[in-house]
Design a protein that fits this description.
mainly beta, six-stranded mixed β-sheet
Length: 411
Amino acid sequence: MHSETTCRREEFVLAVGPASLLVGGLEVPALGVGGAVPGPVLRPEEGSHVVVKVVATDGRLETVLETRRALPGTYLYRAPAPSEPGAPIAAPYGLLVVTPRDPGHWPPVDAELFLVLDELTPAHGRAAGAAGGVALVNGGSDWRAAVAAGEVVRLHLANAAHSRAFRLRLPGARLKLVGTGAGRVEREGLVDEVFLVPGDRAVVDALFERAGEHRLEHRLPGRSLPLAAFAVGPSGGGSAARSAFEDLRADPSLAGYRERLAAELERPPDATVATSDVSAARPRRLSAAGPLPKLRLLDPPTAGRPRQRLVSLEGGRLLVVSRDGVPVRSLAWADALLLRAGEVVDGLVEATEGDVVAIRCRELETPQSHGTAVLHVGSRGRARVLRADETAVPHGDEPDDPKDRRPHDAG
C-alpha cells in the first residue's frame, strides 16, 4: 500500500452526449463522451489524486473513476448511459494515460497513438447495415493513421468490448511489448501478437520498417479480421527511438519479485476465490505470510461446455506468478485477466486504494453473469474474503471512507 502524503489533485469533468460511429462509410448515431467515440485522452501525472466526473444524459454529475495516487499506465474510464431499445448505441468511454515522473520510465518513441477496440452486437451491426457483429477501432470499422518508415510508434491499446477478446497482429511491423495497462512488464520483449480480454490494456511499441499499408488484424481460427490500417510513408531518417528499439529493458521493481518467486510459489495462498462461489463467498480468516497477500483464483471443473471467465480487480492489481503451478515467464501487473476452464492462477495482490480490493468474475461471453468477492487486506498482515454484501472493516479500526473504495480502474 502507498504512504499517505499530500498529492496534486487533478479533476476532469466531461459530458455524455450525441456522437457517431463510422461503420462501412455510414455514420451511425451513438452516445459518446465530449461528442466523440472514444472520448478525450486524459493525461494526469503520476502520483496525482485523479477524479473523473461526467454529466450524464439526465443532467446528473457522477464520479466514474477516482484514484488517490495514480500509477503510470493506460486505463479506461467509462460513463453510464441508457441502453434501452431505440436508444443510440452507447459508447461513453475513453482513455486515461498516467504520465510517469521518470522520463526514462518508457523507452523513447517518435509518436504515440491511442486505439480503443470495441464491437457492435449483431443487432446493432444489422441496424448499421452490416451482416452481424462489427469490430471497431476508435469508433470506426476502418480507422486509419499515417506514419513514416523507420518510426517507432507507441500504441496504447484498450479493449472496451463487453464480451469479445482480441488477438492482435500487425504484419509488416515489429512489435515490442513494454507494458500492460497496469504497469511495465518484467522484461520488454518482441511479440508476434497481443491478447486483450475485455477491460484489458497494453502498451506496445511498433517499428514500421518499410513503406506501404500495414493492417492491424484480429486473428481468428483460420482467418484474420482487418481492424485498422497504417499508411507508412517514406523514411524521415534515423532517430534515437529507432536505435533504442532493439534494447529490451528490464523493470528493476519487478526484478525483486523474480528473486523471491520460488518462495512465493511454495507458500500456500492467503485467500482463495473459486468461480463457483464468488457471488456468495463465505467469510474466511487466513494468515498472510508476506507483505503482499497471495491470492488463488480457480475455476472448478464443471459438466457441460467449458466456459472462460473474466476476472477483474478494482482498487488493486494482481501480479500473476503461476498458472496451473507453472511459473510465468514474464511478470506483469494486471487488473483484468482470463481464467480458462479448470485453470488455477496464483498471484500477489497490491491494494492501491486503501485496503479493500473488489474481485469481479463473470463468464466471458455473458456480461450479465457476474459475481463479486471483496478481499480485505488488513494492516496487520491478514487477508480475508468477504461476501459481496458484507462491509469490509479492519478489526480494531474505524470503517474506511467510502471514497477510498473507488476503483483503481473503471474499465
